[in-house]
Amino acid sequence: MKIALDVLGGDNAPLSTIEGAFSYLDDQGDSAAELILLGDKAQIESTIQELSRDKDDITIHHTTEIIGMNERSSRIFREKPDSSLVKSIQLVRDGEAQAAVSAGNTGALLASSLFMIGKIPGILRPAFAPYIPTDNGGFILCDAGANADTKPQHLVQFALMACAYMEHLGNHPNPRVALLNIGLEENKGNELTINTYPMLKSHISNFIGNIESRYLLDGKADIVICDGFTGNIVLKLTEGIISHLMGWIQKGIESHVINKDASSICQPIFDEINTTLDHEEHGATPLLGINGVIMKCHGSTSARGIKNSLIATQKTVQENLIADIVEILSKHTDIIDNSTKLSEANPV
Question: Which residues contact 244 (CB under 8 A, 6 or more apart)?
Answer without folding.
Answer: none
